[in-house]
Write a structure and sequence with these properties.
Helices cover 8% and strands 32% of the residues. A five-stranded mixed beta sheet has the order 2-1-11-9-10, with no helix packed on it. The protein is built from one helix and eleven strands, in the order ββββββαβββββ. Strand 9 and strand 10 form a beta hairpin. By secondary structure, it is mainly β.
């Protein structure tokens, strides 16, 4: 399975929610589950698991107890998956200040390679190796 390395930056106070670290280089699989599962922390090979469910099999079919193997549904790595990954793995406090539902909270500007994400398809933008995603809070009260 190939991986994609993406540079993620936080500004406008959002870095405080991510351990006060502004810049992160993250390697993620190029193909990810469609059901919002993410890899467990500190794993060398991605083994998706839902936060409240048992781990899913690594690089193999899901098992349906009545019908046998079921093909795992995957999609290309996109910004929506990245946001869920950031919330689950890097966010250190107050997740409600970063995401609301399946997207960022109102007042957070997202740039993909220096372009407003609304022009790139928002969460459906498929991430390429070397992309830079920047999250900037406009609600810091300055």
């Amino acid at each position: 399975m190939s991986t994609i390395t993406v540079k993620v930056e936080f500004g406008g106070g959002l870095e405080l929610l991510f351990g006060n670290k502004r810049s992160h280089s993250i390697s993620l699989p190029s193909s990810v589950p469609t059901d919002k599962t993410i890899a467990p922390p500190n794993s060398e090979s991605p083994q998706p698991q839902k936060s409240n469910d048992l781990p899913l099999p690594l690089n193999g079919p899901n098992q349906d107890s009545t019908n046998g193997p079921v093909d795992a549904k995957t999609k290309p790595l996109d910004v929506q998956y990245l946001m869920h990954y950031l919330r689950a793995r890097l966010l250190t406090e107050r997740p409600e200040l970063f995401m609301e539902g399946d997207t960022v909270r109102p007042g957070i500007l997202v740039l993909i390679n220096d372009t407003d994400w609304e022009l790139e398809g928002e969460g459906t933008y498929e991430i390429s190796d070397g992309d830079e995603i920047v999250f900037i809070s406009t609600l810091h009260g300055g």
